[in-house]
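Hi R.,

Here's the chain you asked about this morning:
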Amino acid sequence: MFGRKDNEAGTVVAVLAAALRRDIAFGELPPDAKLKIEPLRARYGGSAHSMREALVQLSVEGLVEATAQRGFRVASATQADLEDITRLRVEIECLGLRWSMEKADVDWEGRVVAARHRLSRIEQDIASNPLALAMEWEEFNHRFHTALIDACGSPRLLEMHERLYNQSRRFRLAALNEGVVDFEASKADHDTLIDAVLDHDPDTAINTLKAHIIGRNGRSKHH
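And the predicted structure, written out as C-alpha cells:
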C-alpha cells in the first residue's frame, strides 16, 4: 500500500523533472532565472513537495543551483561553464571508451552499431529541418555517446558522464538554434568512431572522440 503511493509520487517527480530539464535545455527557463515553487506549479502542475523534489533532483544533476538564502535558480551557462564541462566530459568519456574497448565483446559492438544506425537516420534529415527534429536528434546522439562507454564496467563513471552530458545539452541546442552546427563534420566523426571500434583501434577511437567533443570549430557547442 505504502509502496504504491511512494511509486506514484516518484513518477510525478520524474515527470516534473523531465519537463523542467527539457525547458532548461531549450532556454525556456533561461540561465540564472529564479525558480519559485508556486509559479512553477502553475505552469507544470504537481504539489509543492513534488516540485521541490524535482528541483532538488536537477540541482544534483547540476542544472539547477540551490541556496538556503536564495532558493532555486537555473544554473549559469557561460563560456567558462562550457569549457569546464567540456574538459571534464573529454576525460570521463574517453576513459569510458577506453575501458569499454578493453572489455569489448560482440554484444557491446552491436549496441554501438545499432545506436549509430538510429542516429544516422536523423542526421540525414536534420540539416533541412533542425528545430523540428532537435529533441529526436539530441536523444539519439545521447544514446550513441552512452553506448560508446556502457561496457566500461563503472557505474560511477556512467553516472558522471550522464550528468556532464545533460549539463552540455543547453549549449548543443543553442548552437542548433543559432545554425552553427556542422552536421557533416559530426557525421564523419561518428563514422570514424564506428570504424575504429570495429577495427579494435582504441587510439583512433579516443583521439576522434576527444576532437569531436571539443569541437572542430573550437566552440565546443555541438557535440
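The two ends are 45 Å apart (CA to CA).

Let me know if you need anything else.
M.
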